[in-house]
UniProtKB/TrEMBL annotation:
SMART domains: UBCc
Name this protein carries in UniProt: UBC core domain-containing protein
Active site: 112 (glycyl thioester intermediate)
Annotated InterPro entries: Ub_conjugating_enzyme (IPR050113), UBC (IPR000608), UBQ-conjugating_AS (IPR023313), UBQ-conjugating_enzyme/RWD (IPR016135)
Keywords for the protein's UniProt record, in alphabetical order: ATP-binding, Nucleotide-binding, Transferase, Ubl conjugation pathway
PANTHER family: UBIQUITIN-CONJUGATING ENZYME E2
Limits of the UBC core domain: 29-174
Membership in a protein family: Belongs to the ubiquitin-conjugating enzyme family.
Length: 183
């Protein structure tokens, strides 16, 4: 009897699949919401999204931000997004892939952005996160740092901070750390 129901379920799945190929995988609510978010993206020209594992893996993607103004103008900063199946109830896990000299990003790539932590709400979306990351490069925040050294330099000597950013983006050492060339 149990076997009969399994056969009927398989037949129903095959009937739903119009091309007669393999049955389609059922998407989670998180995947459906993420698909909607990605379809509705309205990114600034300096931001791009890519899917290194192909379009079939929407839950893992990368965003590149190339600021046009400010301390980080001319750089290209890549972020990995890992989205939970229970999205939007949990915020995506976002990491900066290259090491960057920034008060709100630590050397492991962790990002200090309030909407990725305590201020996350299910009404927020991927577009909001990308704009938040873009804003971190437009206006770094020394008041809520992950890289305390960079925050202190920004707070006390913005010109030295600007020089440190340029040195780091050129692939040089800053404060004992070596950085990747961003130009």
């Amino acid at each position: 009897m149990i076997r009969l129901f399994k056969v009927k379920e398989t037949q129903k799945e095959l009937a739903r699949n119009s091309n007669g190929g393999t049955p389609t995988k059922k998407q989670s609510a998180g995947e459906l919401r993420l698909h909607k978010d990605i379809t509705e993206l309205n990114l600034p020209n300096c931001c791009t999204i890519s899917f290194p594992n192909g379009k079939d893996d929407l839950m893992n993607f990368e965003v590149t931000i190339s600021p046009e103004d400010g301390y980080y103008a001319g750089g290209a900063f890549q972020f990995s997004f890992k989205v939970s199946p229970v999205y939007p109830h949990d915020a995506p896990k976002v990491k900066c892939i290259p090491k960057v000299y920034h008060p709100n990003i630590d050397y492991e790539g962790n990002v200090c952005l309030n909407i990725l932590r305590e201020d996350w709400k299910p009404v927020l979306n991927i577009n909001t996160i990308i704009y938040g990351l873009y804003h971190l490069f437009a206006e770094p925040n020394y008041e809520d740092p992950l890289n305390h050294e960079a925050a202190e330099v920004l707070k006390n000597d913005p010109k030295a901070f600007e020089n440190n950013v340029k040195m780091a983006m050129s692939g040089n050492y800053v404060g004992g750390a070596i950085y990747t060339h961003f130009y």
